[in-house]
Specification:
6 strands, globular, Beta-Lactamase, 6-stranded antiparallel beta sheet, alpha+beta
Length: about 220
């Protein structure tokens, strides 16, 4: 049995909806047998109705933008051979020929003995700008934002640099983690900022380290 820090729900309708400021879907990739699991949202991003396709490495690579396919293959090879996470920003083409730009935010999947057996996390589709639901959520969060503006701005800045996104998407990512983990936004942002010194700034590991920080930081927020 595998243990998970993320516990992405891969069941029907587990992610997304009007309350989500971002188009987000969950995945798991088991190294033995190279077995993939996609949430309904990830299937739909690729143009498939849920349950109509079995995701495989070959299928995944066939959808990647030609200019990004080799890069994604190298990331998967690194994960398989070194027990790392599948952290990436790349483009893929859905079944209708539409191009998507996604961030893959991931961490390692461990078994009960602490051994790495795979990688799991989320696809965040940046193709659309932050939608009206996200704008409304931003408006609703303004009172909290004013109380903790400095920490939130610093956390946003870190996300903008690491993931190469604009301020709206950086805030939406913070808000998504806040909602997903039921952690106050200002507390989550402050903890991200407090832990920035734990991230080592080597180019080849920065993304994987920051993914782990962002996906687990709520576990270390002190409840007052």
């Amino acid at each position: 049995m595998a243990t998970s820090n993320l516990a992405p729900d891969l069941g029907p309708g587990s992610l997304g909806g009007a309350s989500e400021p971002l188009n987000v879907g969950a995945f798991r990739f088991w190294f033995v047998g190279q077995r993939w699991e996609w949430s309904d949202e990830v299937a739909r991003m690729h143009g498939y109705e849920p349950g109509t396709v079995v995701p495989t490495t070959e299928l995944l690579l066939s959808h990647k933008h030609p200019d990004d396919r080799q890069h994604v293959q190298e990331l998967l090879d690194h994960a398989l051979h070194h027990g790392g996470s599948f952290s990436s920003r790349h483009r893929f083409i859905d079944t209708s020929g539409r191009e998507h730009t996604v961030i893959v935010l991931a961490d390692r999947l461990l078994n009960e003995h602490g051994a790495v057996v795979g990688t799991e996390g989320y696809y965040i589709d940046l193709t659309e700008t932050v939608d009206q639901a996200g704008r409304k959520a931003l408006d609703d969060a303004l009172p909290e934002l004013l109380e903790a503006r400095a920490a939130i701005e610093q956390a946003k800045g870190a996300l903008m640099v690491v993931y190469r996104v604009d301020a709206d998407h950086a805030f939406a990512m913070l808000q998504w983690r806040s909602q997903k983990t039921n952690t106050k936004l200002r507390s989550l942002a402050a903890q991200v900022v407090a832990e920035l010194d734990t991230v080592h700034y080597q180019p080849d590991t920065l993304r994987r380290q920051f993914d782990h920080l962002l996906l687990t930081v709520h576990e270390r927020v002190q409840v007052h």
